[in-house]
Design a protein that fits this description.
This protein is mainly α and 81 residues long. It has a single domain, classed as Ferritin. It is 73% helix and 0% strand. Helix 2 packs antiparallel against helix 3. The longest helix has 27 residues. It is elongated and about 45 Å long.
Length: 81
């Protein structure tokens, strides 16, 4: 799984007035990747326990993405596409 580079992670941790916007953009990308991997697990996986976990990941991450995008819009930001 691709993660944030150390440099990008450090840049996100710099406190600025718009601190939440880059954090939410990064989390959106992270959650979207988790959903993609979980969907692959649902499609190609064989272990029932892991398929249950993958289903739960999709449900939770979808809710988290929706929440973050709403918050971004409420605070003048643009949601991550």
């Amino acid at each position: 799984m691709m993660g944030l580079s150390d440099m990008k992670r450090s840049a996100l941790l710099v406190a600025t007035p718009a601190f939440s916007q880059p954090i939410m953009a990064g989390m959106d990308t992270f959650c979207t990747g988790a959903i993609d991997m979980a969907k692959a697990g649902l499609r190609y996986g064989h272990d029932p326990a892991l398929k249950t976990l993958a289903h739960d990941i999709v449900a939770v991450q979808d809710k988290e993405i929706a929440f973050m995008r709403r918050r971004q819009m409420q605070h003048g930001g643009k949601p991550t596409p």
